[in-house]
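Q: Got a minute? One more chain.
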Amino acid sequence: MATTNVTSEVIGTVWKVEKAKGDAVEEGDLIMILESMKMEIPVEAPVTGTLSEIKVAPDDSVEEDQILCLIES
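A: Always. Here it is, folded:
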């Protein structure tokens, strides 16, 4: 199995987490939504697999390129 790191493209705040650890995801599925400068930025699964870890929670601040979650595929 390969592990894929899903990272933040922006500096912002975690607004909503749509998936949970252990959930199956398809490429393109919405995992969470970040908020940056009053804009909502969707974080989508780059690969099909299973969410093995979510490293952030709602209201957490995130940096650009920070790892948000891991997908096992």
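A: The chain is about 0% helix and 55% strand.
Q: Perfect, thanks.
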